[in-house]
Amino acid sequence: MTPGLLTSGLAAGLGGVVGVILGLVGRGGSILAVPLLTYVIGVASPHVAIGTSALAVLVSAAGNLVPQWRAWNVNWRCAAAFSVAGVLGALAGSVAAQAVDG
């Protein structure tokens, strides 16, 4: 196996673990993904690990949304308010993170 293939397999396996935990408890994906990407996978820049985990968690969360939506378990008004506040908080956090050395 080549190092790239091994790293990709490890990343896929750990991403699956993060997805299962995200599906079980509905949160915590980035808290788990960033350290795994940084310390286990070897992503050198914490900023790249944060951006990578954000996309991975977005896709995992979207996958979890579909069955919850079909089961009528989504309060859309609350989700919209929470999402807007979350996006604003994420933007503020990303600006603050850029000011800090990785």
From TrEMBL:
Membrane topology: Multi-pass membrane protein
Transport as UniProt keyword: no
Protein name: Probable membrane transporter protein
Transmembrane feature ranges: 6-25, 37-59, 79-100
Organism: Methylobacterium gossipiicola
GO cellular component entries: plasma membrane
Regions annotated as coiled coil: none
Similarity comment: family membership: Belongs to the 4-toluene sulfonate uptake permease (TSUP) (TC 2.A.102) family.
Record localization: Cell membrane; Membrane
Keywords: Cell membrane, Membrane, Transmembrane, Transmembrane helix
InterPro entries registered for this protein in UniProt: TM_pro_TauE-like, TSUP/Inactive_protease-like
